[in-house]
Automatic annotation (TrEMBL):
Protein name, as recorded: PQQ-like domain-containing protein
Keyword Membrane included in the entry's annotation: no
Source organism of the structure: Actinoplanes regularis
Annotated InterPro entries: Quinoprotein_ADH-like_sf, WD40/YVTN_repeat-like_dom_sf
Transmembrane segments: none
Annotated signal sequence range: 1-29
Gene3D superfamilies in the record: YVTN repeat-like/Quinoprotein amine dehydrogenase (2.130.10.10)
Taxonomy of the source species: Bacteria, Bacillati, Actinomycetota, Actinomycetes, Micromonosporales
Keywords, sorted A to Z: Signal
Amino acid sequence: MRISQRLRLALTAGVAAAVSVPGWSPAHAAVGTAARGDLPSFNGSVHAVAFRGGTVYVGGDFTAATRHGRQVGRARLAAFDVRTGELLDWAPTADRTVRALAVTGDSVYAAGDFGRVSGAARDAVARLDAASGELGDFAHRVNGVPRALAVAHGRLYLGGDFTAVDDATRRRLAAFRLSDGGLDRGWTPAADAPVHALAVAGRRVYLGGSFLRTNDSPAAPRLSAVDAATGRLDPGFRPRPTAVVFAVAADYTGVYAGLGGLGGRAESWTADGRLRWSRAFDGDVQAVTALDGTAYIGGHFDRACTRPNVDRFGDCVDSARSRIKLAAIDSDGDLDDWAPQANGVQGVRAIAASPALGAIVAGGDFTRIGGATHRRVATFD
């Protein structure tokens, strides 16, 4: 984490492990570098973004949105039309931070620190109607803090730093049936430390975090895969990243992850856990998505290293390219020339792709991209 590397080194020092990477030849991303200028802005951090057709749902720690100079209340949840930039009337409220969103059918699921949604008690998880924002009857008790959501195989998967759901032991992972909203009593994988990210591809649920054991096995620290139906650890995926995993995405080509540690890294593996590529940055990679074989990443880095090594302060050892908070990496592991250049300390916290629209949406703490004002949310197409 760039903002605290030197402070942390008063306690410990180290150098990120060297990993063989492809060459530095420039590539070209599928989306433009200019962010749309007609979107709503938000007065607080955006932690989560999700597409549903032409709608983007936003969750975070904001209390108002502004468009065309007009400010309206939006308490940690909002939505806008990605084609027109229009802020939608969708306006449920949460009393504390929304950290994750997942969309399926006519439902938007939210997870975070909140205890009430739209005035009703909801302990850390809630279901909202995708059109009206009406609060659904999906309600559970979560002993801890959720951080990640994913939807597939008739289930809503939940990851975070919790120990129980509805008085049933759940060590940082749980699933709910979409059919009736009930806790899936048969899906009980466990992690020994927080799960920061989830992604689903095929029959696997990929887990990223700071854990060293999944289902009490040390075989796949920080990034592992469990069966989407049974929760069993998949022995065929053992990538073993060297630092905490903050973000995970998956597509037909493989698995992508955003790492912290000294400096930060974006890495990709095949489905059998072989490293495809690794790129070093001078700050944490906190968000990742994939579109047409290109990985789009966000974080609070300022530079992409030309070599895999960083020094004991998390800075690039050799030359570097300017990539402020946003970058793209092609399928060969080459740094793309996509460089929107955002600002802020924490930078980009969330990023999502719409293959149907060929678009990317990013959310975070930034207020400018490419020299223009974009307060905490931006889209690229």
